[in-house]
Amino acid sequence: MFILDDILMAPIRGLRLVFEEIHHAVDSQTHDTQSVVESLQDLYMQLETGKITEAEFDEREAKLLDELDRAEGLPAEEGSPEEDGPDESSRGESDESP
Question: pTM above 0.70?
Fold first, then answer.
């Protein structure tokens, strides 16, 4: 009887493990993005209070934004020229028309 129960419950246990892994991955990603957002807030505060210069802010902000993009699974700004390329070229052609 117990062997039959184990055989019948195996697919359900397998699905449960898959869902637990998905849940764990989402939790870790959410935690990663929250820590980066908190770091960005702290960075903005340091700039406003004058603890860091504009150049330091720009450098650190770029790194944090790239890290946030990676945590969210988005491509970095430097590596995605396709986003700006086609839209600007089609706009440029329509602007040149008389």
Answer: no
